[in-house]
Design goal:
Shape: globular
Low-confidence stretches: 273-286
Order of helices and strands: EHEEEHEHEHEHHEHHEEHEHEHE
Number of strands: 13
Structural class: alpha/beta
Helix content: 25-40%
Distance between the termini: 28 Å
Mean pLDDT: 84
Strand order of the largest sheet: 2-1-6-7
Length: 286
């Protein structure tokens, strides 16, 4: 009989209560500065990053193989037979590919790695949705197909105050960074479905219009898919006031949603490094 585990990385920004409720296992992204390495959400938090990022050179890297193998051993000991891994978009990180290579050397469990083509709660809500299907008794092969479908029907939108770090990391083009910093035009960013890279589906003039545009983008997906069921998730990066305003706007515009999954952008995505950067996110998924 199949016993299926779901794992993801800490860039999924899944809160502890969701991890425990849906039995999702999270591997910490590594964060390095001053010659030391820290585990996202374990040894370091986003608040720690905000306190030092203007003074320190911070780098991030994929979870270490030892953490993955220790987790796989634990899952095996608990009776798991299969593992599905959902990791940060391959368009901005090599984490998923690295985890795939590690899993290929582990013969005690049957593992399958999925490219989420998303990040933060965009990734997190895919993992939660997949866990719900697992509870319904879906098989390993069925869950793989569902995971692929969820990733392609996942729409993550976010906006950040300073685009220079995304530009320096090669995440967005110079033109978009120039528009955002010089002309005060705020791009709404998302992930392309073809390759998982960050692109700009919309722009607004001034930060005050960002939330309204995020909601307009969500509404467009509902109009295009009137018979599909969606769930919302929202995350902030140490800006609870703006996050609560956005949630209120979402609930007012979309009263048909039965739940809104909330998260907080973790240490790895809060780093102003060449690996991961994020500020405010809203996402919609099936």
């Amino acid at each position: 009989m199949e016993k299926i585990a779901i794992i993801t990385d800490s860039c999924s920004d899944i809160k502890k209560e969701y991890r425990e409720l849906y039995d999702i296992h999270v591997l910490p992204i590594q964060i390095q500065y001053d010659g030391k390495s820290y585990r996202d959400g374990v040894d370091i938090t986003s608040n720690d990053i905000y306190a030092i990022q203007d003074e320190k050179v911070i780098k991030t890297s994929s979870p270490v193989g030892e953490d993955l193998f220790n987790l796989l051993d634990q899952l095996k000991d608990k009776g798991c037979t299969h593992v599905i891994g959902l990791f940060l978009s391959s368009g901005i990180s090599g984490t998923g590919n690295q985890m795939r290579l590690f899993c290929q050397t582990y013969e005690k469990l049957k593992c399958h790695i999925v490219d989420s083509q998303s990040a933060s709660v965009g990734l997190g809500v895919i993992a939660i949705s997949l866990a719900k299907y697992r509870e319904e008794g879906k098989s390993f092969d069925e869950l793989i197909e569902i995971a692929d479908f969820l990733c392609h029907q996942n729409y993550a939108y976010f906006s950040i105050d300073d685009l220079n770090y995304l530009q320096k990391g090669g995440r967005i083009g110079k033109a978009s960074a120039f528009l955002g910093t010089t002309l005060k035009i705020k791009p709404i960013l998302s992930f392309e479905k073809e390759n998982g890279e960050i692109y700009v589906p919309a722009k607004v003039r001034g930060s005050k219009k960002v939330k309204s545009k995020l909601i307009d983008l969500i509404e467009s997906h509902l109009e295009e898919n009137p018979h599909q069921k969606f769930a919302l998730a929202i995350a902030d990066a140490n800006n609870l006031e703006e996050r609560n305003i956005l949630e209120g706007m979402l609930k007012e515009r979309f009263p048909q949603f039965t739940y809104i999954i909330d998260g907080h952008v973790g240490a790895a995505l809060s780093c102003r490094s060449e690996e991961h950067t994020s500020e405010l996110q809203s996402r919609i998924t099936i």
